[in-house]
């Protein structure tokens, strides 16, 4: 996997996935602080003058927690003064609180300053030029909006000092009007998007490749605004049915269980589908099958929804496939499944607007080639297909493969009981639902993970007796379990 710059959201996903792998956030913070301390030692060893006195200026979040750990690791060799910009009661995470508590026991080797006292005459902030190095651990990548007080004043004091400054992960206030002018940077795990400091060192903090490569709890980190109204959390349109009524119904019910507000199913069998659940909005389109005569009506529906799922139960009639090809060209946020995949070759569409969710037989039909036996060969095939067709591909299998043609992810949740009919329709509905709030690559990854987790919950209760409807019923339990992990 290429070592591209990481966004804030991607780094958060990776950290949460570490928790799913059994690597605690406290352990990651310990590794990060130790890596910062090692970098400080190397800088001091290379300095032209003796380096004895260090001020570590910390905020209330995890960036500050990294600074606390660094202070502890430096305390045997240096005079360390820790400035907490705020009061300890305001520390935002358990990890930061635990590491602050550890510092409070070091009454000989570390001096602590907090609250209003940090601006007193005896505070390190009043004599920053008296230190050999400053460590900026005030604000990390989670900053939103402008820098507020008292952080703003503290950053200004750091910038007025002539002492060299090292920032942890990102300069505090990065890309705002109040930003630490850091001389050095220790990037944790990877450089973050937007980093411009020349003297940046990337430090390993013990994050394994699996935390990036495999889906996990971090893929489930999304929230609903308390101020939102009906429809603002996603409107999904399922186009399918005709020969089969169960498939679009399963996709629609799964989409609803994922947390979107509104799911509409457009199908010739509207009356039958409406009888399955009062939660679904059902529009009758066509008679026996969807044909080109129904395109105008469907285009009007597409315009009123955020995301479209095309294909479940659609049927392979040639006139239906022609209509599907036209619909593909009209969608800017589409999940294509089952018989809808047959229309991809004749459609025109923009890159990155479509996620396709084939099983291995369907993928072989799309590529005209057999499925490779090894995982690495399958990954290469999925990447090549995604790149050539300008789609995000979710190839279903024992290990799901998700790729946009450049990067890829793997999902290993799920079990053999999920070979039962209908679970693919559940997955398509979830991809369509998550596409209302996430980009296609992330939507497909999240859907694969949740679908497998729900299937695992169902299997733990029902074994090989599980049905696709049981997977849908277990989605809330899987979501609750993932919220506990993160």
What does this structure look like?
- The chain is an alpha/beta fold.
- It folds into two domains: 8-213, Rossmann fold, CATH 3.40.50.10260; 224-485, UDP-N-acetylmuramoyl-L-alanine:D-glutamate ligase (3-Layer(aba) Sandwich).
- It is built from 16 helices and 16 strands.
- The protein has helices at residues 8-20, 25-45, 62-74, 94-104, 151-160, 209-213, 246-257, 270-274, 295-303, 318-330, 360-367, 375-389, 423-434, 440-462, 468-473, 475-485; strands spanning 53-58, 79-84, 110-114, 133-137, 165-168, 184-188, 200-203, 235-239, 262-267, 281-284, 307-310, 334-336, 354-356, 392-395, 400-403, 408-411.
- It has a nine-stranded mixed beta sheet with strand order 10-9-8-11-12-13-14-15-16, sandwiched between helices.
- Helix 14 (440-462) packs across helix 16.
- The longest helix has 23 residues, at 440-462.
């Amino acid at each position: 996997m290429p070592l591209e710059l990481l966004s804030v959201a991607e780094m958060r996903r990776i950290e949460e996935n570490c928790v799913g792998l059994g690597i605690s956030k406290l352990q990651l913070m310990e590794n990060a602080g130790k890596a910062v301390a090692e970098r400080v030692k190397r800088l001091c060893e290379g300095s032209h003058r003796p380096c004895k006195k260090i001020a570590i200026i910390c905020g209330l979040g995890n960036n500050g927690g990294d600074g606390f750990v660094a202070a502890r690791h430096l305390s045997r060799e240096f005079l360390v003064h820790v400035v907490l910009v705020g009061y300890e009661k305001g520390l935002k995470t358990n990890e930061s609180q635990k590491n602050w508590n550890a510092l409070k026991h070091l009454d000989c080797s570390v001096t602590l300053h907090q609250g209003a006292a940090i601006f007193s005459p005896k505070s390190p902030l009043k004599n920053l030029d008296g230190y050999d190095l400053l460590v900026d651990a005030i604000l990390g990548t989670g900053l939103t909006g402008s820098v507020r007080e008292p952080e703003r004043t503290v950053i200004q004091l750091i910038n007025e000092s002539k002492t060299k400054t090292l920032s942890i992960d990102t300069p505090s206030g990065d890309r705002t009007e109040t930003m630490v002018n850091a001389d050095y940077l220790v990037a944790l795990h990877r450089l973050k998007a937007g980093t411009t400091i020349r003297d940046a060192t990337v430090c390993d903090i013990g994050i394994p490749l699996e935390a990036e490569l495999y889906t996990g709890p971090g893929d489930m980190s999304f929230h609903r605004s308390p101020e939102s109204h009906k429809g603002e959390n996603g409107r999904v349109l399922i186009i399918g049915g005709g020969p089969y009524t169960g498939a679009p119904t399963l996709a629609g019910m799964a989409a609803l269980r994922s947390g979107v507000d509104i799911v509409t199913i457009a199908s010739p069998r509207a009356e039958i589908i409406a009888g399955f659940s009062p939660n679904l909005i059902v529009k009758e389109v066509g008679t026996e099958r969807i044909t080109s005569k129904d395109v105008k009506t469907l285009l009007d529906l597409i315009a009123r929804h955020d995301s479209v799922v095309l294909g479940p139960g659609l049927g392979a009639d040639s006139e239906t496939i022609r209509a599907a090809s036209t619909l593909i060209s009209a969608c800017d946020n589409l999940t294509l499944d089952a018989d809808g995949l047959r229309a991809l070759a004749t459609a025109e569409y923009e890159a990155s607007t479509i996620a396709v969710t084939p099983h291995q037989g369907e993928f072989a039909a799309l590529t005209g080639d057999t499925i490779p036996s090894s995982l690495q060969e399958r990954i290469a095939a999925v990447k090549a297909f995604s790149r050539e067709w300008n789609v995000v591909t979710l190839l279903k299998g024992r290990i799901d493969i998700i790729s946009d043609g450049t990067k890829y992810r793997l999902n290993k949740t799920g079990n053999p009981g999920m070979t039962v009919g209908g679970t693919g329709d559940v997955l398509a509905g979830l991809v369509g639902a998550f596409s209302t709030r996430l980009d296609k690559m992330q939507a497909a990854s999240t859907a694969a993970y949740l679908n497998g987790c729900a299937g695992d919950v169902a299997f733990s209760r029902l074994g090989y007796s599980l049905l696709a409807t049981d997977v849908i019923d277990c989605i809330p339990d899987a979501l609750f379990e993932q919220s506990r992990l993160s």
